[in-house]
């Protein structure tokens, strides 16, 4: 991984690392595939996590740990989408809004998880130089990917909330390309949110008896 952690180029005074650039390009591709509800979003996400793990390891251990968790959740998402493929009218997975109970559970898990991970980072300062925002992104990413694996539209809202903290944090840590890519993530999230929202309404619309299909 040493060659991947070398500098690729300088942009606006920021040093862009090969691992940071390649990993985030794969992450961007994974998000675009998720928008299209392609099952290949998960192996691409796994590969992005693997490359970014190498980028962060030894410098930001907490961020490296986040990527390890991302890889585990990517495997879970692959398994879930394999089970659910073909349920949508176009042969892909079907999407839906979460129930209020599911939303409450995810919000509670995100809040409790953020506190727990932040306290862990504070107890072991080598894991993160800024425990609270790093913990927020860590847990928020896991919650977003879980919602995506379950085909929930709320996945996009969760990613948007992660982006709001992820952009300035990546710039502050010197991972400029990650920061730039997170801005593009924001645009993709808005488009993907609209697409899944419309599809969920179409899926949920009841078919009247005797009406044409």
From TrEMBL:
Key word Membrane present: yes
Primary location class: membrane
UniProt keyword terms in alphabetical order: Cell membrane, Membrane, Transmembrane, Transmembrane helix, Transport
Classification via InterPro entries: NMN_transpt_PnuC
MF terms in GO: nicotinamide riboside transmembrane transporter activity
Membrane topology summary: Multi-pass membrane protein
Cell compartments where the protein resides: Cell membrane
Keyword Transport (UniProt): yes
Gene Ontology cellular-component annotations: plasma membrane
Organism domain of life: Bacteria
Transmembrane spans: 12-34, 46-79, 106-124, 136-162, 174-193
UniProt record similarity statement: Belongs to the nicotinamide ribonucleoside (NR) uptake permease (TC 4.B.1) family.
Entry protein name: Nicotinamide mononucleotide transporter
Species of the source: Streptomyces caeruleatus
